[in-house]
Design goal:
CATH topology: Aminopeptidase
Number of helices: 4
CATH class: Alpha Beta
Shape: globular
Number of strands: 6
Strand order of the largest sheet: 1-2-3-4-6-5
Largest sheet: 6 strands, mixed
Order of helices and strands: HHEEEHEHEE
Strand content: 25-35%
Number of domains: 1
Helix content: 25-40%
Radius of gyration: 20 Å
Amino acid sequence: MRRRIRTEIERKIMKLEITECKESDVETIGKELTSYNRSKVPFTQDIPFIKMNYKIEENGKVIAGIISVLYCWNCLFIDLLFVEEKYRNQGYGKALLQKVEYEAKKQKCHLIHLDTFDFQAKEFYMKNGFEVFGILDDCPKGHRRYYLKKSLEK
């Protein structure tokens, strides 16, 4: 019986046409998931997604930047933080972290989270108050991906 059900499902899936999304499709998928999420856990923000992206320039060139979003429940996700190599260990990364934390706190943020690889900046984030809450081995192969968080409720 079990094999028969699987076969019927597989036949149905085989008939589906799976195509690449257009930008409007991506927006639709995001809106639908956001709507579902809101139905399960009411949002604590009036605007579900607030971009918090900042940069540091020198002579018109971006030398450091942070890309993050405050989402739905006053949580901040830091997607990217980059400091050009010759400017590292000079406080640029810390300044960017402090900027997004300050702006997020103004929006009543209570939690910041991010991920980084073993060849990136785990120690930097830990020095700035983050703690590891998860590790993914072999991502990429032979390396680790660390998931970190920082509570702003202290």
